[in-house]
Amino acid sequence: MKINFAELNLKELTHIITEELSEKKFRAGQIFKWIHKCGVFEFDKMSDIPKKLRDELSGKYELSLPEIIEKSISEDKMTEKFAYSLKDGEIIEAVKIYDDETLGKYTVCVSTQVGCPIKCAFCQTGKMGFVRNLKTSEIIGQVLKIAAESETGFENLSNVVYMGMGEPLLNYDNVIKSIRLINAEDGLNISMRKITVSTSGVIPGIAKLANEKIPVTLAISLHAPFDSLRAKLVPLNKKYNIEKVIKAAADYIKITSRRVTFEYVMLKDYNDSLEHAKKLAELLRGLICHVNLIPLNQSDIDGNFAPSLNKKIIEFRDYLTDKNINATIRRSKGLDINAACGMLYKKIKSGDSQSL
């Protein structure tokens, strides 16, 4: 199998260029910039690389990224959803979200797995089952392909969020490598503080992430303040309960000095009462955190849940803020193209799905 240049960092690329191909070190920097700064994904199109070297690269190595096979644009033009075909025929989705306040700036929401093993009760992606982890090139490729086809260009990419298909911390090594590539100064150069990693509460992954010494934002999908309730919504709670999740968050804050975000999907008559708000405030007391209240994004495959009433969501938020807990209500984008939180769903090829 050929080495894929799309998932090599500059150090790895330099080793190949200097040790395997006996070329000057600066050639590695040129190639890295072509891929990660200019959006050129064919060796033959790297115009400042000698033709002999381009031919050698094409023969010995590959430069392979996921292929965009479908693009959907929301009616308000603020959200675009991309479907990608992978080399084995599997399909994943990523989302481009324009910033309301800064014209042209946008966020890319990437997937980290084909399907998802967590199977959260209200999430469409979980209904797909789990096929496999994405490679580093398949993760970074989502960002690079969106940036390359964008009229606003690479320079207007402002944030990357690992909130698409899959549980990022169950594909830890590939996720971390892709983050470092996104952050690379000679590439996209996205600040670590502009990168968010979402997890359903994989405790070992949170602990490892805290010790990476990369100041990314950690978002934890909590969704309920009681174990009995959360276990029904997030089956992983049976392995890593709320007490363990809150402890892991507190440790993350202590080690990184970074605020943690808690995601909380609002489900009508299920987790949106004043009792739930009181318990949540009790759990989060003293933590440097932010609560993101998310009205359920309902679709035609949802059956057991409905979004909370706006009045209830506002009351829930106000209770938290009265208790000095920072809380906001997320305004969903891309609902009309099934691109909002928890709505990514694509038919997958493999017949055998797996769960955690």
Overview of this structure, please?
It is a single chain. Helix 6 links the parallel strand 8 and strand 9 (217-221). This protein is 31% helix and 19% strand. The longest helix has 15 residues, at 242-256. Helix 1 (10-20) crosses helix 2 (26-36) and helix 6 (203-210) packs parallel to helix 8 (242-256). With 356 residues, it is of the alpha/beta class. The relative contact order is 0.13.
Sequence stretches where pLDDT stays below 50 over 5 or more residues = 348-356
Strand order of the largest sheet: 1-2-3-4-7-8-9-10-11-12
Query: What gyration radius follows from the Cα positions, in whole Å?
Result: 21 Å
In which range does the helix fraction lie? 25-40%
Q: How many strands, what sense, and barrel or not for the largest sheet?
A: 10 strands, mixed
Give the ordered list of helices and strands.
HHHEEEEEEHEHEHEHHEHEHE
Strand share of the residues?
Answer: 15-25%
* Global morphology: elongated
Tally of DSSP β-strands = 12
Looking at this protein, list some descriptive labels.
alpha/beta, two-stranded antiparallel ribbon, 10 helices, 10-stranded mixed beta sheet
Summary, kept brief:
This protein is α/β, with parallel strands linked by helices. It is built from ten helices and twelve strands.
Question: What are the SSEs and their pairings?
Answer:
Blueprint: H1 10-20, H2 26-36, H3 51-60, E1 67-73, E2 79-85, E3 91-98, E4 106-109, E5 113-115, E6 130-133, H4 136-149, E7 157-162, H5 172-183, E8 195-199, H6 203-210, E9 217-221, H7 227-233, H8 242-256, E10 260-266, H9 274-284, E11 289-295, H10 310-322, E12 326-329
Parallel strand pairs: 4-7, 7-8, 8-9, 9-10, 10-11, 11-12
Antiparallel strand pairs: 1-2, 2-3, 3-4, 5-6
Helix pairs in contact: 1-2, 4-5, 6-8, 9-10
